[in-house]
UniProtKB/TrEMBL annotation:
Annotated organism of origin: Sporomusa termitida
Keyword tRNA processing found: no
Domain HTH gntR-type residue range list: 9-77
InterPro entries, sorted: GntR_C, TF_FadR/GntR_C, Tscrpt_reg_HTH_GntR, WH-like_DNA-bd_sf, WH_DNA-bd_sf
PANTHER family, sorted: TRANSCRIPTIONAL REGULATOR, GNTR FAMILY (PTHR43537), UXU OPERON TRANSCRIPTIONAL REGULATOR (PTHR43537:SF5)
The name this protein goes by in its record: HTH-type transcriptional regulator LutR
Matching Gene3D superfamilies: GntR ligand-binding domain-like, Winged helix-like DNA-binding domain superfamily/Winged helix DNA-binding domain
Coiled coil: none
Amino acid sequence: MEITQRKKTRLYRDIVAQIRQLIQDGSLAPGDQLLPERQLAEKLGVSRSALREALTVLDSMGLIDITPGGGACIKKVGIESMVEPLAAIMLKEKESVFELLETRRILEIEIAKLAAVRASKSDLYQIREAAMEMNNDILNARDTGESDVNFHLSIARASQNTILYNIMQMISGLMREGYGPSRRELLRGPIEEQRYWSDHNFLILDAIQNRDPDRAAELIKEHIQKAEVELRCYFDEVDSGSNKQGSLEKE
């Protein structure tokens, strides 16, 4: 780990920028322990107070973990660290659920097109397995939430775009955490409704197998738009029930 000495007149921002750069270029990896405070301050040529301020900022950014008496180490930035704060907002703001679905619609339409062009035999097998898994869950009256997520992630993987796949992983985490209960109700409806989601998955699979990006995109768009409509109906029913309950309590 090569750290450049800074002039004493430099502010804590320089320290933050330098350590961030070391993380980005791989010189500092997740789990690496930073030098003890006194040694690190001497190596950087800064005061310990400036270093402490920089470490506090890095900690608030989620880049390091500071343990009292144990120093600081580089933190692994995973999907979970991004999902949890966003999920907390979604649980409070109903409209955030529909913003998430809007985001899914925008992304998954293009992902489906890429998958139809780029999917390998292995990718097609994984998509088919995920579609069959959800179908089996329905037939055996099991919760379909996880198999539904797996189906959409398998398509994202088939796009051969790592960034899109990672974004979809984060969105999947939000789907689980942010509107899990309402989503479970949506997927737990009458058997005919559940069959719709499963049958539609197989239609999407067919379009990708047939290398038809436009058809795959059209089906994904229909899929998510129906989810939006169903979810709005669900929330309207919940709100209606809450209003009725409130009226009864007033009486």
